[in-house]
Amino acid sequence: MQQSIFVRLATVCLFSLGSFSISLASFLLTKTADHNSSPQIITDVSLYQEIRDYKWSNSQQIQHFPANILANTKPVSMAYSSGWRQSSSFFQVRLKQSPEQIKKLFNHYNQIAEHQYQGGDTNDHIKKPNGVPTTFFHTSQSEIETFPNTYQILVLKAQEQGQPGFKWKHGSSYGVAINISSAEIVYWVEQW
């Protein structure tokens, strides 16, 4: 009888220890997955071609991006995030061009832009009358991700996929931001 109680007590302890171990392992795996699941921002310009050709899922949204970065084009910076879970994805490349080329690009994109903004960021632009979400200055190489007023943000397309009462809950937008005085162009696309 005493041995039977001891066996039952040992069995209960082993089951409790096993349950605790499984719970602890599940908790630790979840924490590790959450830690590793934050969106990673890729800034290595040498990965531009791979991201443009293979990683960005909607090729229509990046048709305006250069097919490749030519040797005579100086990449200033790049930022890419594939997004994860509920976060948005974005792709942006900032290039230095000749003043003549920048003027040509500005004239071209200015003619086909659906919306135009002087400086600012997506939070500023969506608040304007008939405003649409745009982008942050992910390639600014500073803590401030707002375009200075020297940049003209030209939205080539903005598509909402929201729902009544929250129009821009999901969607995408893409375009260019051009600074004529510094001869720079930022090609951008955002999807959320």
**What's the SSE pattern?**
HHEEHEHEEE
**Mean residue pLDDT:** 84
Question: What is the total number of structural domains?
Answer: 2
Strand order of the largest sheet: 1-2-6-5-4-3
Query: Pairing-aware structural class of the strands and helices?
Result: alpha+beta
Give the distance, in angstroms, between the N- and C-terminal Cα atoms.
66 Å
Oligomer class: single chain
Task: Tell me about the largest β-sheet.
Answer: 6 strands, antiparallel
3D shape: elongated
Work out the helicity level: 25-40%
Q: How many whole angstroms does the radius of gyration measure?
A: 25 Å
Tell me about this structure.
This protein is α+β, with helices and mostly antiparallel strands. It has two domains: 1-36; 45-191, no CATH class. It has four helices and six strands. The protein has helices at 2-36, 48-55, 99-112, 122-126; strands at residues 74-81, 89-96, 115-120, 147-160, 171-179, 184-191. It has a six-stranded antiparallel β-sheet with strand order 1-2-6-5-4-3. A hairpin with a 4-residue loop joins strand 5 (171-179) and strand 6 (184-191). The longest helix has 35 residues, at 2-36. Residues 1-25 form the signal peptide.
